[in-house]
Design goal:
The chain has one domain. The protein is 3% helix and 35% strand. The chain has helices spanning 23-26, 31-35, and strands at 2-8, 16-17, 38-41, 44-47, 52-56, 65-70, 76-77, 87-91, 106-109, 125-128, 151-154, 170-173, 189-192, 196-198, 208-211, 215-217, 223-233, 236-247, 257-262. A hairpin with a 2-residue loop joins strand 3 (38-41) and strand 4 (44-47). The longest helix has 5 residues, at 31-35. The chain is elongated and about 60 Å long.
Length: 269
Amino acid sequence: MEELRLTFKKEIDIKLEADVITPDTFAGKTAEEIENLSVWQGPNSVPLGEFFEVEGKTGATAEETLIRIIGDAYRVKQIGAEMSAGRIEIEGSAGMRVGAGMKGGELVVFGNADSWAGMEMEGGLLHIKGDAGDHVGCAYRGAWHGMKGGRIVIDGSARHQLGGGMDGGEILVGGSVRHFCGIHQNGGLIAVRGGAFRGVGVEMNGGTIVICGKIERFSPGFELTGTESGLSFGELEYEGEFKKFTGDYAVSKRAKGVLYAGAAKNPEL
């Protein structure tokens, strides 16, 4: 795999729209050609080379290309959008919509990620080593269907509406989540090793949610169906006893969503 490095030349004031930063776009191009690719800053189209020093080389295909972004990219949006293969490593944080519509390959963020990470993702791996903002793996505003495939791993915590409208794939959170985790979920797996605040699984029609920690305000549309000890989803394992609920029956009497809550942390449920 060939490596292409992007190093910031200066601080960015108005955020960049940089969906060109993908192995699919960079593959087979010279450093000079990549510098001349256009990004948007507000209403202006600007060469990528105005903001980044470009070094190294790309592979002949996306699959053979590694893009390494050196520095904090929190003010750069849409890195890795719709990428289908290859690898991107961001040695800092990432801006909004990192990995949006991603179809394949691997994208690693060594810091935090802003909102809409992995929005409507279809495949590949998005790994966020820090925390994530709102709407991870969600449907975009006005749409009903979010993430359809692939895997999102968040080592830290995430904020509101994680996995909203999710149809498939997996979202794995090492920390906790805030409000409306799995809202309108239709399929796939959301697994949270920490706790959640409120609205877990509301309007859920299908799929599975696992909350190992405390759920502060439990949604009323779920029915307790029993307990299970130790959960396995392929190579994923979650130890301990879990209370199993189905729902959200506030939306439909035929809802097939499954919600597991850690029994030790939720004795009142």
